[in-house]
Amino acid sequence: MDYKRTILVSLPFMAFMTFWSAYDGIIPLMLKNTFHIGDTVSGVVMALDNILAVLLLPIFGSLSDKTKSRYGRRMPYILLGTLFAVLGMPLIPLGDYLYNFPMFIIGLGVVLLALSSYRSAEVALMPDVTPSPYRSKADALNSLSATAGTMVILACISLLVPAVKHPDYMAVFAVIMVLMTASALILFFTVKEPEAVARMQEESRKLGVVYQEDTVSFGGKETLPADVKRSLLGVLACVFFFFFAYNATSSALSKYANVMWGMEGGSYATLQLVPVIVTLFAYLPMAGLAVRIGRKKTVITGGLLLIIAYGALFFSGKFSPVLYVYMSMIGIGMAAVSINVYPMIMEISTPETTGKYTGYYYTASMTAQIITPVLSGAVMEFIGYRYLFLYAFIFGVITLIPLLFVHHGDVMKMEETAPQPTGQMSGGLQENGVSSSYSAS
């Protein structure tokens, strides 16, 4: 695998995730403490990004698939999306500082629209330039970069946000703007997308990997065979319920830590940093585990760890150092699930439809994140804050059920990628004993 190329391609995703880390932690505090918005309505506002994502990510993903430019299919979306996001971002902390809700909402809207315009294109760039057998490992490196950015921004929140009643968040958003701008420019000047795609195709041929040209698109004029569609829908359902559980806790942890554990200002970021650090070290081992036992079994393992951690946190009525152990388990579980479900979907796509299938992935994840902040917010407001992790536990269990119906999109074992003479290609990939023409063969 070309590690340098993979890391460079991951840089915009790293910067992208720094914003979402701040978004999940800071925006709920702004809504609650500055604008005095209740938890249920706050959940609606927190779901706006996901509503836009469901509407726009499949559209822009498909558009990027069809885009032809001297800079490639994905690069124009990444550059323009980053530009508009950086222009709108200062309005968010400024609106909060001035108690100006319209300014705050306008800034938030501009940023969310901009990010939705290029998220599918940015994520699809990784499989565009990475041969199929290496995608779990490439996704692990992609996630490593994102986690490193998350660590930086959480550290900034902890250091730059004072424990006062109405802190100024401008410094935190300034760091995000610098990271987003720098990452987009570094990618543009170091990776020539058309050349990188051509190299991937040559590397694939040397590995004996052939991408089927006749794979039909899910949701298009033709349909996938029933068993392949069932696997695709099973993975998408797993993604949906995974984010239904996880996003409920990540988007409300700052408020939960404040109410239940008495953590003020940016101190909650210290606790949230633990799973981020653990996830950082778990990505590559979980990618290696997927090669050994398959992506599906690795996802199940991660799901079980999340369920145990959520259950333990539900019974933790006050702050204790043992919380760091449970948060560490969440970090490992997150790594095991997150780096494998997306490559499973990519195995059912073709090089011509990676953007569209990336849109399907985000449709599932974002739909969950539209509903769960509202529903979990209502649970906290009308039933009690302590039931947040019981909520996550229940949907964590449901996450594993769709995997019973998944039999495609598992890992290609590395021994199946031995270089073959020119013109001699393998006829079909055996995935857990099931031959599939809807993945690399």
From TrEMBL:
Gene Ontology cellular-component terms listed: plasma membrane
Transmembrane residue ranges: 7-23, 43-63, 75-92, 98-118, 139-163, 169-191, 231-249, 269-291, 298-317, 323-345, 357-379, 385-406
Subcellular location field: Cell membrane
Membrane topology: Multi-pass membrane protein
Domain Major facilitator superfamily (MFS) profile residues, every copy: 1-410
GO molecular function: transmembrane transporter activity
SUPFAM superfamilies to which the protein is assigned, alphabetical: MFS general substrate transporter (SSF103473)
Region spans: Disordered: 417-441
Biased composition (Polar residues): 419-441
Keywords for this protein: Membrane, Transmembrane, Transmembrane helix, Transport
A Pfam family annotated for this UniProt entry: MFS_2
Principal location class: membrane
InterPro entries linked: MFS_dom (IPR020846), MFS_trans_sf (IPR036259)
Protein name: Major facilitator superfamily (MFS) profile domain-containing protein
